[in-house]
């Protein structure tokens, strides 16, 4: 038996089983009961500092809120 046939037989049987098990394990791990808090925290990252610009008094010389407000005004 040549090398290609051996590797092909391995890929068609055991490696396929291993990859299927890995895929099912990953799905189960992602939807496990204790993971909702982690997923919710990760999903809220873009909104975490949304109110920081409105609480700022814009008194800094290199204030990021001033730059953001200026960019928003140019977009409008």
Summarize the structure.
By secondary structure, this protein is mostly helical. It has helices at residues 3-30, 36-43, 52-55, 64-75. It has two domains: 1-43; 52-76, no CATH class.
Distance from first to last alpha carbon: 70 Å
Provide the gyration radius in Å: 26 Å
**Class from helix and strand fractions:** mainly alpha
Output the number of helix runs: 4
Number of strands: 0
Domain unit count: 2
Q: Quick one: biggest sheet? A: none
| Beta-strand content estimate | under 5%
Shape: elongated
Helix and strand succession? HHHH
pLDDT averaged residue by residue? 80
**Contiguous runs where pLDDT drops below 50 for at least 5 residues:** none
**Proportion in helices:** 55-70%
Description:
The protein has 76 residues and is mainly α. The chain has two domains: 1-43; 52-76, no CATH class. The protein contains four helices and no strands. The chain is elongated, with a radius of gyration of 26 Å. The model has no long low-confidence stretch (mean pLDDT 80).
């Amino acid at each position: 038996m040549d090398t290609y046939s051996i590797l092909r037989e391995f890929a068609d049987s055991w490696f396929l089983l291993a990859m299927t098990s890995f895929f099912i394990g990953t799905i189960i791990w992602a939807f496990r009961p204790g993971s909702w808090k982690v997923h919710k925290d990760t999903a809220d990252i873009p909104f975490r500092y949304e109110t920081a610009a409105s609480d700022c008094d814009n008194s800094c010389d290199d204030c990021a809120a001033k730059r953001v407000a200026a960019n928003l005004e140019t977009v409008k």
